[in-house]
Amino acid sequence: MQSFLTALERTVEAILFVASEPVSTAELTETTGSSTASVEAALSSLRCHYEAERHGLTLLALAGGWQMVTSSDLEEVLLRFRDVAGSNRIRLSKAALETLAVIAYNQPVTRSEIEEIRGVRSDRVVETLLGHGLVRVAGRKKGTGTPLLYRTTGRFMELFGLDSIAALPSREELEDELANASETTDGVSAFSAEREGE
Amino acid sequence: MQSFLTALERTVEAILFVASEPVSTAELTETTGSSTASVEAALSSLRCHYEAERHGLTLLALAGGWQMVTSSDLEEVLLRFRDVAGSNRIRLSKAALETLAVIAYNQPVTRSEIEEIRGVRSDRVVETLLGHGLVRVAGRKKGTGTPLLYRTTGRFMELFGLDSIAALPSREELEDELANASETTDGVSAFSAEREGE
Amino acid sequence: MSYEVVTGSFAGPLDVLCALVESRSIEVSTIRVWEVISLYGKYLSETERTTIKELAEFLSLAARLLLGKVHALLPDREAAVFPEDEDDVPEDLIRALSRYRPYRKAAEVFGERFRARSAFFSRLGADEGPPIYDLGDLYALSRLWWRLLDRKRGGAQGDEEGYEDFAWEGVPMAVPEETQVETRMQEIRDLLDERGEVTLEELLAPVPTKSVLVLCLLALLELSRLGELRMFQKELFDHVTVVAL
């Protein structure tokens, strides 16, 4: 067996790597400009190479074509990686960030107020935010049902580089760009009108 | 060189494959339970293997971690592939690159500081960079008006092939390069003459 | 994901000046306003894709140069104005140019890096799904909030995420509650300063929503706790009168 990949093999490898779904042989021949037979040979040789050299990757023949996947015996460690990556880099879904935004700008605020603004149930996202230590329960609202009130935490301020809640960007700060854009356009139309008039 | 991958190498390979973004050495050691030294050895050996056997894949040190990517010489054929061709293209104007440079070298920096250096209003270009996730708001500057402060992001490092901000040429290096260039071109020496004269 | 750098245009007026100097068309120490205007004007007329933005930036540069001249010509400036260099570029522009140049170089380096990096492709499939935000992204946080608010205020229809349309009424104001109470307290103080005495009815009458009503009551309670006002009824079922103390 050859010790290195052919030009076609490495091209097929790169295509399968970037592909989001299984790739058909037809598509591989079209992209590479090689014959079906060569592409099929390259696929099978690539798979043999992965196996012989004990790569962590392999090729699967699926209904739609070929797909690059990790070796099945690595499942456990990959699940562990997901946990590790998930806990190391805290990333928030749009729903979570949106909820955090509602709490930050309206604190102290009850869950039903959050839900009223967002228009969707928010119990689980609030749990997530509590779990990350980004929001905390800050007492109960007086009145019927005395619901819990939520506030952001010191950790939130630290992570977002804020000295105080009042330091949250105002609408003007984030959106004066749009206002400027329309100003420029107005100025422009006056300008071009003038030029046309010349 | 050994002809097949070790258990750690194939595990690292599989992790980098599923991660699709830079993974830090710390995350790799935590997931695999191996020492930092072994993980680093595995990464470098994996990269050598890819190169020696002419794989279509390689490893890049980006944003303080490692990312699995396709070989750069396959760019052309991959641009023909549907998933790549159909993906979002980020278009960066010269003004965007210039603004990014000002932010990268002065972070954290306010918009008016950016504008002072560039000599032109920069609100819209900052907005574009924010939208692409290349810069982010990182708190407020203390003092009058407490303006927002901007920083570059990990995504910036990822897209510009940087392992860390320190990997950028220093401002001094850039100035030296300009000074050297001016020795050969007369027109430019006007700048240095002015500066000496100050 | 693939990347592209747009080239061909200028990054700004300082970029134009640098380009002019480097092409030896002019010397920075002897930049004359008319020279810059005619050279840049020529560039713009030769470039087919001149945008209005570029024109505006050019006008702003020309204005800056002229302003420099005006300053130099003012009689009370201590630097004597010699007739031969009355057309010279203002000092601050030269300083601005030499401060700017390293960044212009850096932008070039960035462009090269960006292009070089774009030849490597990472996996596309894996990062599909809902957009996720790095924790600490104040911009994303803030933008989400203001958009949410606009959607509610505009009574927007449910969007792709399946939000339902509902009335805006009753949704708290977009400022922390403490601030709202403080604002209302100040309004009441101002009113009392002006009139000395108001009825509770007058204070509560123009409120559009329950939450604003609650806010007003909280403000009154707080003011009375601070000893700034007193509320009383002259007789049973009479109006409640609020007076400043």
Could you characterize what this model shows?
- Chain A is α+β, with helices and mostly antiparallel strands.
- In chain A, about 60% of the residues lie in helices and about 15% in strands.
- In chain A, the strands form 2 sheets. Chain A has a 3-stranded antiparallel sheet. A two-stranded antiparallel sheet of chain A has the order 1-2.
- Chain A is elongated.
- Chain C has about 240 residues and is mainly alpha-helical.
- In chain C, strands 3-5-4 form a 3-stranded antiparallel sheet.
- In chain C, α1 packs across α4 (about 90-115) and α2 (about 35-45) packs antiparallel against α3 (about 50-75).
- The radius of gyration of chain C is 31 Å and the shape is elongated.
- At the A-B interface, α1, α2, α4 and α9 of A face α1, α2, α5, α8 and β5 of B.
Strand element count of chain C: 5
Which pair of chains forms the biggest interface, and how many residues does each contribute? B-C, 68 and 64 residues
- Counting DSSP H or I runs of 4 or more residues, the number of helices of chain C is 8
Rg of chain A? 28 Å
| Extended strand count of chain A | 6
Strand order of the largest sheet of chain C: 3-5-4
Distance between the termini of chain A: 77 Å
Distance between the termini of chain C: 67 Å
Shape of chain A: elongated
Helical fraction of chain C: 40-55%
Report the sheet with the most strands of chain A, covering strand number, pairing sense and barrel closure.
3 strands, antiparallel
Short summary:
The complex is a heterotrimer, with 2 copies of chain A (about 200 residues) and 1 copy of chain C (about 240 residues). In chain A, about 60% of the residues lie in helices and about 15% in strands.
